[in-house]
Amino acid sequence: MAEKNNIGDFDYQEAHLEYIAERLEHDSEYNNNSYDNPVMKEGDHHYGFELEPKTIEFMRDVMNQLRQLETILREYDLAISGDTCEKTFQERVGIK
Fold first, then answer.
1. Is residue 3 part of a domain?
2. Coil, strand or helix: which one is 6?
3. Would 6 be classed as within a structural domain?
4. How far apart are CA 70 and CA 64, in angstroms?
5. Looking at the domain assignment, is residue 24 inside a domain?
């Protein structure tokens, strides 16, 4: 059996998926703001890319998939590290 450590099997790199999802969410939220007319929020300029709606919708689906994957990987990591167990992993990710 592999030696357990307290840094996580993926060294918590799965959390980076949430960062990417947040960027996609930001891009979606500000998509319609042109470079010439940015939104000022919390001292930052927020520009959009003015992408077609079908592209934004597709990327929203990707954003949701990334968040699901991050959750699955975190739950897997908890199970194999001994913080939870395989049965808990199965229940939390919907394995029947």
1. no
2. coil
3. no
4. 10
5. yes
pLDDT greater than 50 at residue 1:
no
| Whole-angstrom distance, CA of residue 25 vs CA of residue 89 | 27
Q: pTM, whole model, 2 decimals?
A: 0.81
| Domain assignment present for 88 | yes
DSSP string, 33-82: --TTSPEEETTEEE------HHHHHHHHHHHHHHHHHHHHHHHHHHHHHT
- C-alpha span between 10 and 30 (Å, rounded): 32
Please give the tally of structural domains in the chain: 1
| Separation CA 67–CA 17 (nearest Å) | 7
Domain of residue 49 covers 13-93
Task: Write out pLDDT tens, residues 49-82.
Answer: 999 999 999 999 999 999 999 999 999 999 998 9
